[in-house]
Design a protein that fits this description.
Layout: H1 2-10, H2 16-28, H3 32-45, H4 50-62, H5 66-83, H6 86-104
Helix pairs in contact: 1-2, 2-3, 2-4, 3-4, 4-5, 5-6
Length: about 100
């Protein structure tokens, strides 16, 4: 899957959905660096793509970049609110609470 998506990108297609799929495939393969690159591109293509913000935060967290993860999830909450995406709002709120609890502990 990842190779097929990368081939599409290499052939000149570049949009939010492709970058999201590629970022997700990279994250599932344990390549958080590449995932963060593609997911950040997805959010640049579509700043309201709340699912991309959610995964971008996960990629940053996997890289130990907690502050960037927090910033991504906060942007994701804004995007989810604009889109009315209640489920992603709940998920990212949970992730943010975990970070806040980690700082308190």
């Amino acid at each position: 899957m990842r190779n097929r998506l990368q081939a599409m990108l290499d052939a000149g297609r570049d949009d939010a959905l492709l970058r999201f799929g590629l970022g997700n495939a990279c994250l599932q393969a344990g390549d958080a660096d590449a995932a963060a690159l593609h997911l950040a591109a997805a959010t640049r293509h579509d700043p309201d793509y709340s699912a991309a913000w959610k995964l971008l935060g996960k990629a940053f967290l996997a890289l130990g970049r907690e502050h960037e993860a927090e910033a991504a999830w906060r942007s994701g909450l804004d995007a989810a609110a604009r889109r009315g995406d209640v489920q992603l709002t709940k998920e990212m709120s949970v992730f943010l609470r975990r970070i806040e609890r980690g700082r308190q502990g």
